[in-house]
Amino acid sequence: MTDIQKIETVVNLYCDAIHSQNETEFKQLWTGDAYNTEISGSKIFTGIDCIYKDFIGMLNQRYSEIKLINDGLDIHLITEDVAVAVFRYHTECMIRGTDETYGISGLETQVLKKVEDDWKIVHIQYAGKPI
Prior knowledge:
Layout: H1 3-20, H2 23-27, E1 37-40, E2 43-46, H3 48-62, E3 63-79, E4 82-95, E5 101-102, E6 104-115, E7 118-130
Parallel strand pairs: 1-7
Antiparallel strand pairs: 1-2, 3-4, 4-5, 4-6, 6-7
């Protein structure tokens, strides 16, 4: 598998992990070091435990179901061990307690680092708006 294909796989597994909210599957996609950050709206989550507990926890409190759908991915290899993945996305959500449908669309940027032969997420930033 090429580096581009491996990165695409990581992005798709991240989308799957947002839906499943499986802690092991989610955390294994990240480097697991102090540099891990996720920015969503005006909130920054630092460290893989915080990202999982607070970011995924926030999603779990708001939605009984969430699907993050990749609508088109561009991957840029910056060096042989650093890449940036940018994709358009939309979500399909069910609001907890009301079962109303809700969604946002926007752009997501992921910074990835090659660790041995695997690509891992270092940083994610979302930019989105309700649809």
